[in-house]
């Protein structure tokens, strides 16, 4: 099933200059974030004093470009629109690397009224002492990459936990039956990393369209040899997983003059999006890849999406198609992908995620000239990672202590 999206919006951005494109991307980044208002950097205070009297610079590049809507860092109090009775305390365990600089706002504070950080650690042993146990922790903040096992142990150890928040958008790295079957609420950083991954998507398109590997070889060989290149304008981008990342990528693709096809698990009857020309449900995957010149994988990893891009699906791609994966490695059958790349069944692949990470040194992907590899770091901007921590502190903690619905709830039945 698929739907054609009426052209009900008029755009004058297909021929934007690079600076204008950058502005368009920045604007989308701001409006895509859950915060309903944006405050210019010039209006933000320079510093706030943390819990240990350290200074947190709010004008450094590592700090959020916008002030969170419910927390005034100048007064260290909720804004007037969000003052309300505190009904409970947030007693937080941080399942994190204690040296993680991105979590500095959590470690150093200040934290909203009614919130306190009890301990930071990466194993159960780091939290297993009487002073912590007696305080009945009820919130766990997660950013450690190997958190699944320790999180299960913490949930078993502390039945008082009501809420788990992960600094990442994906929750597959902490997914477990114990977490998903429990009444514990789970929230994530959905939307925080959309714009930087959209930039990577367009970079990968240009990498293959302009044949950047050849350019680099010719430069190294001191070889002036002109050759024809492809346009991105007029090409079709198929987006498997038309969520925050997919839509952000589609917006940039439209600025380049591309046609965009989207795929969603379910399509609301009222679906209409100015950045999507046609929308498909899961049954339309083969049709989408058959029509696409560039195929962006931006869906979360669930049992339903594991191996979604199979050998059979890859065989339906154009020989000139490029696969771009910013979702999770296991969504693609990696052996089938290597075979397709080796045999010339598809043109190339841009991979920021792999089935096994770090990518083993003996993987054939390292040796293929038609593969663009990055070490799962295309969302690893200093500002976004810290903003993700600030989102937990400045948006959801004030809500939690007041009994207000949290932002970015994860549908545990769907896995994202």
UniProtKB/TrEMBL annotation:
InterPro entries tied to this protein: D-isomer_DH_CS (IPR029753), D-isomer_DH_NAD-bd (IPR006140), NAD(P)-bd_dom_sf (IPR036291)
Enzyme type, top EC level: oxidoreductase
GO molecular function list: NAD binding; oxidoreductase activity
Every D-isomer specific 2-hydroxyacid dehydrogenase NAD-binding domain range: 206-376
EC numbers for this chain: 1.1.1.-
Entry keyword set: NAD, Oxidoreductase
Superkingdom: Eukaryota
Name this polypeptide is given: D-2-hydroxyacid dehydrogenase
Top-level taxonomy: Eukaryota, Sar, Stramenopiles, Ochrophyta, Bacillariophyta
């Amino acid at each position: 099933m698929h739907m054609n999206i009426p052209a009900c919006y008029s755009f004058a951005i297909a021929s934007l200059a690079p600076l204008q494109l950058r502005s368009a991307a920045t604007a989308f980044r701001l409006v895509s974030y859950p915060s309903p208002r944006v405050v210019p950097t010039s209006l933000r205070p320079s510093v706030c004093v943390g819990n240990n009297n350290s200074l947190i610079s709010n004008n450094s590049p590592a700090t959020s470009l916008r002030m969170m809507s419910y927390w005034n860092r100048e007064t260290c109090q909720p804004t007037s629109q969000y003052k309300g009775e505190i009904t409970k305390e947030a007693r937080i365990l941080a399942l994190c690397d204690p040296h993680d600089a991105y979590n500095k706002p959590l470690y150093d504070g200040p934290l909203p009224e009614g919130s306190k950080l009890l301990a930071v650690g990466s194993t159960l042993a780091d939290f297993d002492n009487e002073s912590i146990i007696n305080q009945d922790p009820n919130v766990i903040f997660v950013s450690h990459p190997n958190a699944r096992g320790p999180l299960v142990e913490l949930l078993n150890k502390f039945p008082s936990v009501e809420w788990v928040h992960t600094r990442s958008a994906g929750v597959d790295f902490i997914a477990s039956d114990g977490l998903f079957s429990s009444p514990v609420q789970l929230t994530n950083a959905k939307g925080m990393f959309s714009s930087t991954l959209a930039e990577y998507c367009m970079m990968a398109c240009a990498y293959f369209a302009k044949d950047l590997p050849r350019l680099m070889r010719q430069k190294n060989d001191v070889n002036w040899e002109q050759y024809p290149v492809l346009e991105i304008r007029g090409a079709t981008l198929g987006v498997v997983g038309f969520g925050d990342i997919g839509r952000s990528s589609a917006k940039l693709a439209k600025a380049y003059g591309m046609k965009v096809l989207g795929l969603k698990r379910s399509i609301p009857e009222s679906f209409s999006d100015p950045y999507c020309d046609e929308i498909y449900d899961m049954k339309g995957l083969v049709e989408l890849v058959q029509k696409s010149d560039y195929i962006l994988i931006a869906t979360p990893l669930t049992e339903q999406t594991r191996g979604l891009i199979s050998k059979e699906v890859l065989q339906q791609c154009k020989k000139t198609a490029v696969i771009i994966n910013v979702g999770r490695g296991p969504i693609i059958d990696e052996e089938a992908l290597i075979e397709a790349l080796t045999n010339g069944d598809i043109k190339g692949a841009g991979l920021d995620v792999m089935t096994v990470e770090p990518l083993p040194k003996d993987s054939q992907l390292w040796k293929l000239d038609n593969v663009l590899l990055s070490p799962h770091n295309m969302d690893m901007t200093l500002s976004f990672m810290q903003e993700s921590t600030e989102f937990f502190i400045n948006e959801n903690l004030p809500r939690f202590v007041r009994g207000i619905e949290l932002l970015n709830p994860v549908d545990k039945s769907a896995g994202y």
